[in-house]
Design goal:
By secondary structure, the chain is mainly alpha-helical. The protein is about 60% helix and about 5% strand. It has eight helices and two strands. It has a two-stranded antiparallel ribbon with strand order 1-2. The longest helix is centred in the N-terminal third of the chain and has 28 residues. It is globular. The chain starts with 5 loop residues before the first helix and ends with a helix.
Amino acid sequence: MTPARPLQRLGAFALDFLLVLFALGLGNWLGWLLGRSAEHGWMQQALVHPFLPLASALVLVLTILLFWIRLQGTPGALLMGIRLVDTQGGRPGARRALLRLLAYIPALAVGLLGILWMLWDRERRGWHDILSDTRLVQEDEATRSLARLMREAGA
């Protein structure tokens, strides 16, 4: 298993970030279209209905976990040709994926040191990877067909 390069990981993060921004923009646009945000901006809506940002964050977390468990990577990671595996090269599973997500807290809490750790680690793993016994690896095959991805996802 060849570890994912830091630039691949950065590219995957950038693609995922753009996808989240697009989804948020689409949600805002739909809200405006339906007239729900015509009188109040998003921040005012969040103050009036504080569960909305919390619900959005929960949906994002569950979506990330679902992608990690079912497809072994977020859309950005899959497009960059990398996938999430456990130490034996298999699917990470729900418990390991949740642990990886929670391990981002200490990795981010020290000024990104836990994320940047991959630059010095021999296996190119950040603290969140080490604490959850996972790793991002380059896809072994040059490409994976959409049909194979769908089969692996159980669709």
